[in-house]
Design brief:
436 residues, mainly alpha, two-stranded antiparallel ribbon, 18 helices, globular, binds phenylalanine
């Protein structure tokens, strides 16, 4: 009881929304979204993604925030308060939130390295070779991964107000300013309109079910559904906040940031006749080729990697807060102790994942390198599974009713039907498809 009274809360509704947007807007928007969109034919993917975010994915996002707001507990306690038997489902969230940063921090480490080398790497010749040589190196990427993780854990250890809010208050405005600057730079390049057309002129012949599932997976990942991050953030919300409105703001900002990320990348890529579908290397190989040809390219490159850094730190912080909250509230640890343990545990997996691009490349789990294995099991299996379980428990057991927090009758009825039936069915389909 005493512990419950001491639970931290956000300073205001706005810092909560900012932190939730910080969690949602991350590598998923800036690094993953453009390359998955590039792989899936551009505008059709964008349309499908926006449609799914506004219809299907909005529901688990709001349900997760409400789950936290109503129960006011960390993940295990939140599920347990609905029924003690559900404790195990709650525990899947902090577990997933240990494994997701284990691969997320690898990319974070690459970003740190590119920030340090922004002013020199463009003169070192082939960007592709530079990148491959770097990720295969056994030391530098590991050191950078651990530095990145240390920075994120530091903000978590400092607590909600002095750590997480502080990080978001600095990084999100910086992120937005740099993004707008880079979008302006990209769309003013000669030939940029081809990139804009690629984003907004749909070619419906590219529409297929694989693309729909890619869009759905992307939507879940980018909205941070299924790790308990939203549940944990929602649990720090004060009683009087209108959470449905906040959820709309989070969703619309996420779409806006994804669009801006596309507008930063595709016009630049098309302007230099490069390929938009180069996969995960888009940010580290294709874009540096663009930077190399721009006047003051080093500065643009530096700004771009600072942008990626801000986006990824605020997301990684929200993931690490999930197990940290559980350790502090449930197992009565101090934040410093919980943070230290998490730092070492995540570092261990993250270093293995980093090395899977080099010396551990031959070590395979289910035919996948350790990095791919973590990415696949967390993003494709655990995220939709956790969201599915959360929706079922929220809809059928916690009996969340749209009427209590959404004013519009049509909308709250749609929410109730979606939560109990539509979203679980879609998620089961996604889940089966992903395991095929
Ligand atoms: N939404 C984040 C991104 O787009 C990733 C994330 C997933 C953050 C799950 C928290 C929880 O990068």
């Amino acid at each position: 009881m005493i512990m419950e009274n001491k639970r931290p809360t956000w300073t205001s509704k706005y810092t909560f929304i900012l932190a939730a947007i910080g969690s949602a807007v991350g590598l998923g928007n800036i690094w993953r979204f453009p390359y998955v969109m590039g792989k899936n034919g551009g505008a059709v993917f964008l349309l499908t993604f926006v449609f799914l975010v506004l219809t299907i994915c909005f529901i688990p996002l709001l349900a997760e925030l409400l789950f936290g707001k109503i129960t006011k507990k960390e993940c295990i306690g939140a599920f347990e308060s609905v029924n003690p038997k559900f404790k195990v489902f709650g525990a899947m969230n902090p577990l997933n939130a240990v494994f997701i940063p284990s691969f997320y921090c690898v990319i974070g480490g690459w970003i740190v390295y590119y920030i340090f080398n922004s002013f020199t790497y463009l003169n070192k010749g082939d960007c592709g070779k530079y990148f491959t040589d770097f990720i295969q190196n056994p030391i530098a990427p590991c050191v950078c991964t651990v530095i990145f993780l240390f920075i994120c854990t530091f903000f978590v250890v400092k607590g909600i107000k002095k750590g997480i809010e502080f990080a978001n208050k600095i990084m999100m405005p910086l992120f937005t300013v740099i993004l707008i600057f880079l979008v302006c730079t990209a769309i003013s390049l000669p030939g940029a309109t081809a990139g804009i057309e690629y984003m907004f002129k749909p070619d419906f012949s590219k529409f297929n079910t694989d693309m729909v599932f890619d869009a759905l997976g992307q939507a879940f990942f980018t909205l941070s559904c299924g790790t308990g991050a939203l549940l944990t953030y929602g649990s720090y919300v004060k009683e009087d906040d209108n959470i449905a409105k906040s959820a709309y703001t989070i969703v619309f900002s996420n779409i806006a940031f994804s669009l801006l990320a596309g507008l930063m990348i595709f016009p630049a890529v098309f302007s230099f006749n490069l390929e938009p579908d180069s996969g995960a290397g888009l940010a580290f190989v294709t874009l540096p080729k663009v930077f190399a040809q721009l006047p003051c390219g080093e500065f643009v490159s530096f700004a771009f990697f600072i942008l990626l850094f801000c986006a990824s730190v605020t997301s990684a912080v929200s993931m690490i807060e999930v197990p940290c909250a559980t350790m502090v509230e449930r197992y009565k640890m101090t934040r410093v102790k919980a943070g230290t343990i998490l730092f070492f545990v995540i570092s261990f997996f993250a270093v293995l994942a980093t090395l899977s691009f080099g010396i551990l490349g031959d070590f395979k789990l289910f035919n996948k390198t350790f990095f791919d294995f973590l990415d696949f099991t967390t993003s494709n299996v655990l995220l939709p599974l956790n969201s599915l379980i959360l929706c079922i428990i929220a809809g059928w057991f916690l009996k969340i009713k749209g009427q209590t927090f959404i004013k519009n009758k049509i909308l709250y009825n749609l929410f109730d039907i979606g939560l109990k039936y539509a979203v679980p069915i879609v998620l089961i389909c996604l889940f089966i498809e992903r395991l095929r």
